[in-house]
Specification:
24% helix; alpha+beta; 6-stranded mixed β-sheet; globular; 6 strands; 149 residues; 3 helices
Length: 149
């Protein structure tokens, strides 16, 4: 499992909020490592909006879980390394978290290995009914910068 460790910026959320948000982000990493779609979907709100790097979209916790079940086979031999995490409190009860990770060992639908990827996942979390939930998720491939950029 890959642990996230960061401080929220700017301050404004309590230490319990930070702990809960970090646990949610850690749970996503654990779900990926275990290929557990139920664990992956557990922290999405019932009407969450989800989109992956290839334009695949799903709306709602159940549809997100079902979509993840379809794509997990492409990651059956892959691993991830977390390289950066940023968490920002943007309004009371609203947090944006960006997580960057390196993915290796991915295959396409035909089972052919594909190049390693650097992916940024962005989570918008909202504190609803006393608990943090992911209301929006986006994933996108990051391109390597050329020297001098």
């Amino acid at each position: 499992m890959n642990d996230f460790s960061t401080k929220m910026n700017p301050s404004g959320a309590g230490p319990d909020d930070e702990t809960e948000i970090l646990e949610i982000l850690n749970q996503f990493g654990e779900a990926f490592d275990k290929r557990d779609a139920d664990l992956y979907a557990a922290n999405f709100s019932v009407d969450a909006d989800w989109e992956n790097a290839f334009g695949g979209r799903a709306r709602g916790r159940t549809k997100i879980r079902d979509f993840i079940l379809q794509v997990y086979p492409l990651f059956r031999n892959s691993s991830q390394t977390l390289t950066d995490t940023r968490i920002n409190l943007v309004a009371p009860g609203v947090v944006v978290a960006d997580v960057v990770r390196e993915l290796t060992g991915i295959v396409n639908q035909e089972g052919t290995p594909v190049p390693d990827r650097t992916v940024r996942t962005t989570f918008v979390l909202s504190k609803e009914t006393g608990r943090w939930q992911v209301v929006l998720f986006r994933a996108g491939d990051l391109r390597r910068r050329l020297e001098g950029d």
